């Protein structure tokens, strides 16, 4: 997921510049193990930032996927798909990919 997209989720709703600056700070540090590592995509590793940012990004995707006939479990950005047949799981994977692409 794009960091610009993540920031755009919060920018229109935040009247406090400190909130956006905090999120930018989270996004600027990729991992607590390697503070110098940076990237423009994905969510940082670490319990507070990754949980919060993943929930913000995946909420609309979760809403769409819950309307479908397959089952899935998501923990932060790790997703498990379930189905009665291999074909059901393949179809679920395609739908998940479509929703993620639509979200950005």
Summarize the model shown.
This protein is mainly alpha-helical. The chain has one domain.
Your description of this structure?
The protein has 104 residues and is mainly alpha-helical. It has one domain (3-103). The protein is built from four helices and two strands; from the N terminus they run αααββα. The chain has helices at 3-10, 17-28, 47-65, 86-103; strands at residues 71-75, 78-82. It has a two-stranded antiparallel sheet. A hairpin with a 2-residue loop joins β1 (71-75) and β2 (78-82). α3 packs across α4. The radius of gyration is 15 Å and the shape is elongated. The model has no long low-confidence stretch (mean pLDDT 80).
- The general outline is elongated
Please give the order of strands in the largest beta sheet. Answer: 1-2
Average pLDDT: 80
The tally of beta strands, per DSSP, is 2
Give the low-pLDDT segments: none
Q: Tally the structural domains.
A: 1
Backbone structural class: mainly alpha
Helix content: 40-55%
Number of helices: 4
Largest sheet geometry = 2 strands, antiparallel
The proportion of residues in beta strands is 5-15%
Radius of gyration (Å): 15 Å
How many angstroms does the end-to-end distance come to? 7 Å
Strand and helix order: HHHEEH
